[in-house]
Design brief:
Layout: H1 4-12, E1 21-26, H2 35-48, E2 54-59, H3 67-76, E3 84-88, H4 98-108, E4 113-120, H5 126-136, H6 139-142, E5 154-158, H7 159-164, H8 167-171, H9 177-187, E6 192-202, H10 208-225, H11 227-252, H12 260-290, H13 304-309, H14 314-327, E7 330-333, E8 336-340, E9 346-350
Parallel strand pairs: 1-2, 4-6
Antiparallel strand pairs: 3-5, 4-5, 7-8, 8-9
Helix pairs in contact: 10-11, 10-14, 11-12, 11-14
Length: 360
């Protein structure tokens, strides 16, 4: 939690009555930042005296799930009789009306789960820009009522639904906490309601190696959570990549072409259309978010033109991630390595408290 002070200030500032804040950190270390620094800062908060609306919960190291899922289970014990449970990641910066906007569909629209999403503020470096564009590409998917999924970093549901759908039981063996929620909601015939006002900014630098691990990990979680969606995306991005190859062949291929120059130009136009549509969607995404609270964050749209241009190569990046996920049974997440067996059961391979700890 490199932005712990700003994160807590944003939570304290929420325009929501009877709000109780539960800060969950791992017992062995805080996996989202420097262990000693975060432990020291949280301990200082406790010594100074926490406000009555806040509690700190320390979760034990995970054994058969991701640490994120284990943390959420530990936090539930401190929720008490709350009517609504909302979750937000520690690297996000929610705006003042975030919680009110997120909870509204649960009562006004009959949604079982309300979700936002993250927007990686590009920061410095090309890898950070690619991560921002890669993550933003999922916004079209999460906003689709038929295929949309819950995102655990900006999520809310009623406590009775949380228990009634047996989500805590699913978290005990889950790698992806949000895909476990999505599966439970869909199995019950419910729906995930996307709230565009609750797209929250996320900050932090990233290198190329960490970016590759991040990209594949996201798709591995998707594959084990929804194989049908993974297969659909694999087919779609393979087709998109094929059309781009077709553009090159039609433009520079030797030999005659049916219809001559006009026929060649027509083929190039038709084959290029899917890529041009993808670029147009990326451009429209900025327009849609410009009227949302995210736009109040300085630098949220830095290097906009480069971000939009990356949409042209995104099919290749997604295709590489989708193919890699087909063969990956281990992922590294916040310094902990997990292994999945054929049935999707999670084994913690290395990390805090195990024989062969690994660094971040």
């Amino acid at each position: 939690m490199p932005h712990l002070d700003a994160f807590l200030a944003a939570l304290y500032d929420q325009d929501y009555p009877q709000l109780r804040i539960i800060l969950i950190i791992e017992e062995a270390r805080e996996v989202a930042g420097n262990p000693q620094e975060v432990a020291t800062r949280v301990a200082a908060l406790e010594r100074a005296g926490l406000p009555p609306t806040m509690a700190v919960v320390r979760a034990a190291p995970a054994k058969s799930s991701s640490q994120k899922a284990a943390n959420l289970l530990a936090g539930l014990a401190a929720v008490g009789d709350a009517e609504v449970v909302a979750m937000v990641d520690g690297d996000a910066l929610p705006h003042r009306m975030w919680l009110k906007d997120l909870v509204a569909p649960l009562f006004n629209d009959g949604a079982v789960v309300a979700t936002g999403f993250r927007w990686y503020v590009p920061g410095t470096g090309f890898a950070a820009l690619v991560r921002s564009a890669y993550s933003a590409a999922a916004l079209s998917l999460i906003a689709d009522p038929r295929r949309g999924f819950a995102w655990g970093g900006s999520l809310a549901l009623r406590r009775r639904d949380l228990d009634g759908l047996e989500i805590p039981g699913a978290w005990r063996t889950a790698l992806s906490d949000d895909m476990a929620v999505t599966r439970a909601v869909r199995a019950a015939g419910g729906r995930v309601h996307f709230v565009p006002q609750c797209v929250v900014p996320s900050f932090g630098a990233i290198g190329w190696r960490a970016l590759a691990e991040f990209a594949v990990r996201q798709v591995v979680m998707l594959r084990w959570g929804d194989r049908r969606l993974w297969a659909t995306l694999l087919g779609v991005h393979a087709l998109l990549a094929a059309t781009q190859v077709g553009v090159v062949l039609a433009s520079f291929g030797a030999g005659t072409w049916p219809g001559g120059l006009v026929g060649r130009a027509t083929a190039v136009g038709l084959l290029a259309a899917p890529t041009l549509i993808g670029v147009a969607r990326a451009r429209a995404r900025f327009g849609e978010l410009a009227g949302r609270p995210l736009a109040r964050i300085p630098g949220w749209d830095d290097r906009r033109l480069a971000h939009i241009a990356l949409a042209a190569v995104m099919p290749w990046l997604m295709l590489a991630s989708l193919i890699a996920a087909a063969f990956r049974r281990e992922v590294k997440w916040c310094g902990i390595r997990y292994r999945l067996n054929r049935r999707g059961a999670v084994e913690v391979v290395s990390g805090p408290g195990l024989a062969s700890p690994i660094g971040r």
